[in-house]
Amino acid sequence: MIEVEQLVRRFGDFEAVRGVSFEVAEGEIFGFLGPNGAGKTTTINMLVTMLRPSAGEARVAGFSVREDPRSVRESIGIVFQDTTLDDALTGWENLRFHADVYDIPTKLFRERAKEVLQTVELEGRRDDLVRTYSGGMKRRLEIARGLLHYPKVLFLDEPTLGLDPQSRVALWDYIREIQQREKITVFLTTHYMAEAEYCGRIAIIDNGDIVALDTPARLKESVGGDVVTLTTNDNLQAGLELEELRLRPRIEDGLIRFEAPEGATTVANVFRQLTPKIVSVDLHKPSLEDVFIKLTGREIRDDEASEADKMRSQMRAGGIIGPGGRRMS
Amino acid sequence: MTGPGLRREVRAGWSLFRRDMLKFRRERARIVSSLLQPIMFLGIFGLGLKNVLGGTGPFQELDYIQYIFPGVIGINVLGISMSTGVTIVADREFGFLREVLVAPISRLTIALGKVASGVATAMFQVAILLLLSPLLGLTPGFVQIVLLMSAVALLAIATSALGVLMASRIRSVESFQYVFQFMLFPLFFLSGAFFVLDRVPPWIAFIANLNPLTYAIDLFRHILYGDIELGELSRSLLLVNSPAEDILIIAVISVVLLSASVVSFVRME
User: Fold this and answer.
1) Distance CA A209, CA A231 (A)
2) Do A280 and A157 sit in the same domain of this protein?
3) What is the domain count for chain B?
4) How far is B126 from chain A (nearest CA, A)?
């Protein structure tokens, strides 16, 4: 459904996307996971024909984004990172506008609009101005609108950014329900590890490059067992001793980290054999965060984006002064 | 673009137009304030300068307030239709423009839909202003009103296109308004709206001759002064060009600005 070959996008001297290649099968939920600025949004913008690739090729629903952007546009639904609703119109009017520019026959539109509004549980608010919606409701309306014209692929750029935890969970329920009922292909970007777990397959992207691509389960397996983190009163000595036990420890930020297939047994063994005093210990099944750390040596920190998120959620709620002193309501 | 393609574009353009009309109708404050401005002009300039200028030159035969009325209409058209551009910039700031730009429709359609909105709003405002004309001693008949509205539409195509052209180059509402205010002032005052341009320095005359408003206001005067008896001298001072010349020049300016705005809008990133 999506085929990407050596896709590149440069902005001046800066290479935001450095020749990524991947394929997404029909009906798949495919996630692009990576920290802010990794090239996720740039890639999505090229796939939805809002940005011309500097090199490489991408085909969406069988159409080339370079040669036939209009056919691509007809086959996709998009929910951008920042809201693209007209908040001076009602929910229904926003949908009607969409139906007009996507040329959905009026009768079909009425049925379909009711159906998508029902899916995201907004039927009761359809005649209210979007201005009065919460952040989560706006997102849901955008998803409903993105589905209105029966797209083959639904693109979601950071769909849950700026939403509170409950809305996030609810939104995922909608996305999965929609994907199953409509047999639609979903392509999404996120920097939330927990969300990537919902995807069928994930591409981990860092500095404009894909560093790994697989199912969440297999990516986690690739870490090589359970993840153990220790602190001791002499990390250097402890590191040397762990090396002797062939545990391949890494010392980062005052923490010793290693992976072991049988975590619990290994930890018990380490407790017996280590000469430095163990101050604390953590043992967990590998998460996608661990996969990312293993691949890049860095953490994707959710709180990295927290300031921007707060700003966004406030902007969605409306009525604050945005960057540059612009009125955002 | 063939049959079904064209029908799609028309539908999309119509929906853009309808959205603007819907929003315009909901923004009562904007309608009222954009009507207050011309009324203020008529009141302050019309009544204020009437006693200063009254009884001199052509104003022996024509009330000064009648003199500035066509100019006030012209200025109103300019202000309203150019602010169509602001709606594009605001849509960009608030995100909605992406919904429009990523839709499978032509940019040409988007630009033309916006120009159509500008023309319609301008015509609506002028229709309301015309209700004031009996108070000023002008009583346009049906034919005059139709002619005037057509002239207004012609001017509004040029000014709305200018608004779209600016919007495709300017990223923020503040900058747009700044540029807009900057342009508005010379366009207002160097158009023959408030004073006869027969004794101005050549550079002012030069600017006035490039200003589409000059010709539009001249054309409005031709239409509105139909019933007023004017002497040969007053006529030559008040009505500078022939109506045909006015129409031709505004039409040329409209075509140029419309083409430029469409090209610029299509190329916009």
Assistant:
1) 33
2) no
3) 1
4) 25
Which residues of B are less than 8 Å from A48 in CB distance? 102
Reported in sequence order, the residue ranges of B88-149 that DSSP labels E, i.e. its strands, are: none
pLDDT of residue B181: 86
Q: Is residue A319 part of a domain?
A: no
Q: Distance from A308 to chain B by nearest Cα, in Å?
A: 16
Mean pLDDT of A220-240: 84
B-side interface with A, Cβ within 8 Å?
8, 11-12, 14-16, 19, 22-23, 26, 91, 93-105, 172-174
* Tokens describing residue A266: 């290994």
Asked if A326 lies within 8 A of B96 by C-beta distance, the reply is no
Give the count of domains, chain A.
Answer: 2
- Measured in angstroms, the CA of B26 and the nearest CA of chain A are apart by 9
Q: Which domain CATH number covers A280?
A: 3.30.70.790
- Do A228 and A112 sit in the same domain of this protein? no
Containing domain of residue B127, as a range?
Answer: 3-267
Cβ atoms B117, B153 nearer than 8 A: no
Chain B CB contacts of A324 below 8 Å: 172
Domain that holds residue A233: 224-285
Residue among A96, A101, A326 minimizing CB distance to B105: A101
The conformation of residue B45, written as its DSSP 8-state character, comes to I
Domain boundary among A168, A197, A215: A215
Q: Which residues of B touch A70 (CB under 8 A)?
A: 104
Q: Chain B: residue nearest A131 by CA?
A: B94
State the pLDDT at residue A322: 36
Q: What is the CATH number of the domain that holds A178?
A: 3.40.50.300
DSSP character for B44? Answer: I
Shared domain for A43 and A156, answered yes or no, is: yes
Q: Which of B19, B20, B174, B266 to mutate to test the interface with A (most CBs of A within 10 A)?
A: B19
pLDDT value for B54: 63
Lowest mean pLDDT among A312-316, B29-33, B132-136: A312-316
Neighbours of A304 (CB within 10 A): 14
Residue A324 lies in a domain: no
- B60: its two tokens: 């022996």
In chain B, whose CA is at the least distance from the CA of A71? B104
Residue A38 inside a domain? The answer is yes
The radius of gyration computed from the CA coordinates of chain A, to the nearest angstrom, equals: 23
b/e A42-54 (16+ beta carbons within 10 angstroms → b): bbbbbbbbbbebe
Q: Is residue A269 part of a domain?
A: yes
Note the pLDDT tens digit of each residue in B137-192.
888 889 999 999 999 999 999 999 999 999 999 989 999 989 988 888 888 888 88
CA A182 to chain centre: 21
